[in-house]
TrEMBL record:
<feature type="domain" description="G-protein coupled receptors family 1 profile">
    <location>
        <begin position="64"/>
        <end position="313"/>
    </location>
</feature>
<feature type="transmembrane region" description="Helical">
    <location>
        <begin position="52"/>
        <end position="73"/>
    </location>
</feature>
<feature type="transmembrane region" description="Helical">
    <location>
        <begin position="253"/>
        <end position="273"/>
    </location>
</feature>
<protein>
    <submittedName>
        <fullName>Atypical chemokine receptor 2</fullName>
    </submittedName>
</protein>
<feature type="transmembrane region" description="Helical">
    <location>
        <begin position="217"/>
        <end position="241"/>
    </location>
</feature>
<keyword id="KW-0472">Membrane</keyword>
<dbReference type="InterPro" id="IPR017452">
    <property type="entry name" value="GPCR_Rhodpsn_7TM"/>
</dbReference>
<keyword id="KW-0807">Transducer</keyword>
<feature type="transmembrane region" description="Helical">
    <location>
        <begin position="162"/>
        <end position="184"/>
    </location>
</feature>
<keyword id="KW-0812">Transmembrane</keyword>
<keyword id="KW-0675">Receptor</keyword>
<feature type="transmembrane region" description="Helical">
    <location>
        <begin position="85"/>
        <end position="112"/>
    </location>
</feature>
<keyword id="KW-1003">Cell membrane</keyword>
<feature type="transmembrane region" description="Helical">
    <location>
        <begin position="293"/>
        <end position="315"/>
    </location>
</feature>
<keyword id="KW-0297">G-protein coupled receptor</keyword>
<dbReference type="Pfam" id="PF00001">
    <property type="entry name" value="7tm_1"/>
</dbReference>
<dbReference type="InterPro" id="IPR050119">
    <property type="entry name" value="CCR1-9-like"/>
</dbReference>
Length: 404
């Protein structure tokens, strides 16, 4: 998390405020090509831009993820694994945005929350920074197994194994946050001005390079490659079997991959260029200043994932839109009859059961078509209740309660 460094005179040793996830800094002074590089303008820009942007993300992310949590907890009677991953993603993003006001105040002023919150907020930030990305990958994997591998009882899609995967994701995110638990602490400079960042002592550059590489690999490259693989395989199945709604499903799949790339690529590219700058592979003071500006802007853009990604996944499901309408109808009292508002949950449950039955029929048909296609037979459209083909909903298709 970007925080301001203390304003230091030219003759003093530099002190930096580190990012709790990637551990970069916006130093007031920086040694580039053996010259002192002043960054007054970078700090002045950050003191205005970052608190404003963090506040915007906090408001949007808090509202969107709270709404998602209410809908999932109130109107989803049986937790399918797609909803379990989405629920954990919403929890992760909610906890992530809760840390942003602390960093916004720290950037605009200084760290005023004490030593315990310094370490706790930094750790919470990193855990949910990574877990949010990991759960997006889990949702891609689950959708891949749903559509590409259509066996009724796929060995990788049992409920126990899926819940184990959820536990593994949180454990991995916790493990990645260990440097925050160990190294992050409060520092006073000058007197009365406190900052919260990691102190790596004599191994500062080595740790910064390692943690940036970790962010590039675990936080971007591997999840992106996984999404490209899973959704490309899904796309191949949809193109081959030609179910009804294929175009919408392909557009949603493409949108999910593009959204992840657009939000995260600029930030990770800037981190990579910062690492090259630390290794003195290129650059001068002006380049260092430009990269600091770019890092503040691209980081803030990347943080928008906690506002838009859960909504993008949720609204790809017709079932979720039905639940949302039921919630809005209850809250706004749109029902004309007195007893209608109390009947809303049961109506929604009934709609869920009907949707599940339709999905089971569609899934059996899709599996039969894939099996016939695999045996070299001619794939034909089947008539389901007078409707030719398969009614396809990308997020909620292929759901089978028995496979959970």
């Amino acid at each position: 998390m970007a925080t301001t460094a203390s304003f230091l005179p030219l003759a003093t040793k530099e002190a930096s405020s580190e990012n709790s996830s990637s551990f970069y800094d916006y130093d007031y002074l920086d040694e580039v090509d053996f010259m002192l590089c002043r960054k007054d303008t970078v700090l002045s820009f950050g003191k205005v831009f970052l608190p404003v942007f963090y506040s915007l993300i906090f408001v949007l992310g808090l509202g969107g993820n709270l709404l998602l949590l209410v809908v999932l907890l109130r109107y989803v009677p049986r937790r399918r694994m797609a909803e379990v991953y989405l629920l954990n993603l919403a929890i992760s993003n909610f906890l992530f945005v809760v840390t942003l006001p602390f960093w916004g105040i720290s950037v605009a002023w200084h760290w005023v929350f004490g030593s315990f919150l310094c370490k706790m907020v930094s750790t919470l930030y990193t855990i949910n920074f990574y877990s949010g990305i990991f759960f997006i990958s889990c949702m891609s994997l689950d959708k891949y197994l749903e559509i590409v591998h259509t066996q009724p009882h796929h060995r990788l899609r049992t409920r126990a194994k899926s819940l184990l995967l959820v536990a593994v994701v949180w454990a991995m995110a916790l493990a990645v946050s260990i440097p925050d638990m160990v190294f992050v602490q409060m520092h006073e400079h000058p007197k009365g001005v406190w900052n919260c960042y990691a102190d790596f002592s004599g191994h500062r550059t080595t740790w910064k390079l390692f943690l940036r590489f970790q962010q590039n690999l675990l936080g971007f490259l591997l999840p992106l490659l996984a999404m490209i693989f899973f959704y490309s395989r899904i796309g191949c199945v949809l193109v081959r079997l030609r179910p009804l709604g294929r175009g919408r499903a392909l557009r949603i799949a493409a949108a999910l991959v593009v959204a992840f790339f657009v939000l995260w690529f600029p930030y990770n590219l800037t981190l990579f260029l910062h690492s090259l700058l630390d290794l003195q592979a290129f650059g001068n003071c002006k380049v260092s200043q430009h990269l600091d500006y770019a890092l503040q802007v691209t980081e803030s853009i990347a943080f928008l994932h906690c506002c838009f990604t859960p909504i993008l996944y949720a609204f790809s499901s017709c079932r979720f839109r039905q639940y949302l309408k039921a919630l809005l109808a209850t809250v706004l009292r749109w029902h004309l009859a007195p007893g209608t508002s109390q009947a809303s949950p049961s109506n929604c449950s009934e709609s869920s059961r009907l949707t599940g039955q339709e999905e089971m029929t569609s899934m059996n048909d899709l599996g039969a078509r894939q099996a016939n296609n695999g045996e070299g037979g001619i794939v034909k459209h089947h008539s389901l209740g007078g409707v030719d083909g398969i009614q396809l909903d990308f997020h909620s298709m292929c759901s089978r309660p028995e496979s959970q």
